[in-house]
Amino acid sequence: MPTLSEGAKSDIREVLKQQANLQFYLVDPNNDAKVAEYRASPSSFRPSPGFRYAELESERDGEVITDVIFIKKTPEALDGGEVSRAQPSPSQFGNWWSISLEFKGRGARQFARITTDNVNQRLAIVMDGKVYSAPNINEPITGGQAEITGNFGFEEARRLAGVIESGNLPVNIQIDSEFGTDPTLGADSIRSGIWAGLAGLAMVVVFMIGYYRLAGVIAVLALLMNTALTLGTMTLLRATITMPGIAGMILTIGMAVDANVLIFERIREELRNGKTIGNAIEAGYARAFVTIFDSNITTLLTAIILYNAGTGSVRGFAVTLGIGIVASMFTAIFVTRVIFDTMLSRGTMKTLRMNALRWFTDCNYDILAWTKPAITISVILCVVALIAGIGRGRSALSIDFSGGTEVGYEVLGTEPPVAAVRDALVGLGHPAARVGYKFSGAAGLRMLEIVLPRTATDATDSLDLGAIEETLTQKYPEAKLKQVQTNSVGNLVGAQFQTRAFLATLLSFLGIVLYVSFRFELAYGIAAVVALVHDVLVAGGLYLLFGWFTGGRQISLTVVAALLTIIGYSINDTIVTFDRVRESLALQREKTYKEIINLSINQTLSRTFLTSFTTLMPVVTLLIFGGGTINDFALVMTIGVIVGTYSTVFVASAIIQAWHKPNRAHRDEVVGKARVAAVVETEVSAAKAAKSA
After folding, report:
1. Which of 21, 168, 620, 627 could form a disulfide with 441 if both were Cys (CB 3.0 to 4.6 A apart)?
2. Is 176 exposed, middle or buried (0-12, 13-18, 19+ CB in 10 A)?
3. Domain for residue 684, yes or no?
């Protein structure tokens, strides 16, 4: 909930924890006599069968009086779930407030029955075990209305009316997770994120136009439309922009650029083969469609699985990703084609010139010759990543997963020493799990970050953060500390985040295997998932390695969002190469399977490099200028994009080459070589025999 004061937060905590369990109890008909008996001898008193002791507070002559009342042990068959409307109502003179209730149809009938059957008896109105009033039923109440009187103030009456109207909860609520960000820090994060994002987007726009010229202009128009459609749809859905959501948007922008690059590179190939501009555009879209469809559907399937299996942050990523995928397919396949066709029909497009990278144009690199060195490098990277993860242990997990309280202070003056801050916390009885500094955004300020383990805070609001801030301010007045961020997560919530994130990732891997196996074959599905596991492991491990000595760089929900983005990006990259292998198998029957894989990688190498390069532009900009969680996200993404490109070219291709059975051309080549060898061997043997004779 945005823009809340500390007082409002305190009120909301109370509202969330209150059950508002509204019930109605009949009062003992002999209540007055029983009360007199009780007061005469409380120790020997026994209430009437079926009734129990309760207390009713009331105000008389400005004083709060507690009266004894005996109510039935079991409530009437009517509760707060039957309330359709509850609102505060002032007294005649406006000096106190009550709560007026209106019941739903069934509730109104039940209330009419209760009041009809018990005329001239008292009915106690009880909420959360407290008796608020016990009015006498003078006549049947058939209008479906009641009133709770308790000498409430306006704010209390308004709050109680709100929780009653929302329906009583069947359980007790304990606040176990709370996230708070100061408006100045939030504004700074937004400002740094927007400027970094705009700078990165501007670099992509300049590159696309400079490299693809007119086609690049068309791609930029489609990209802007894709962004507008994604944001517009999220606005209609009343979605909130979060870091995982931003991650999903970055991935969809990368996929939108990727789809256009695929189409343009296909058009370039058709033009090199001598086709006219119109035929080249038609063939380029036709040939690129299958690849775009497969890569986007695979990612969309991942988004659906993440949404159904993930928690809030993972779901936010999945929703944004799903919307962006649909928008990018529409703009890349339909919108750009309409623009091309319109220009062709009007005769304003006679040719389509594009620049080219000579290292990736008509190249013929023997990629598979590097299989053994590449696998060795991958094994080393995975081992290093595992060592970093195991070596960091639970310190690698942020409070999102391990539980605890994280407090951030903006340091406007001199930074107090980390060791001294740690000692001060020990003196307060709150030994910290981690104390350190991190860059807080575009303002160039540093933030003191203190993480307290969950064992020190059994409940979110039991930790006196005000006392901690007061102590630190007194000890280090020159630091000019300002609390700007608080995150508190309970063990149960952290464990749930951890389990659901792992389950969502595992199910997405399974979905990818099934879909890719259906569209290609099992070897391709296994290769794709092995490459994804490789990318996630290396990116996460190297990220943790960077924070080994500082104690920072922990696995948080933001880092999980970045790893999910890498999964979507990497599978998209891999599917493009696999599609070209499948196409070449049908067209290049005279080549061996190894030659076809090498050819396919070379044919898509330009697209692979360009997509990685355009994705890295905004990501690196976020890494340089973004602070806090944005910087963590950008670091993981930077590593992931580089590793994902590497795994597509070297890891996935090596697996399908090793797994796949040889095709007919390869078998004919092997058989032919065997026959030649046999003939040569026969002739050599004959020559030796003739010579010896």
Report:
1. 627
2. middle
3. no
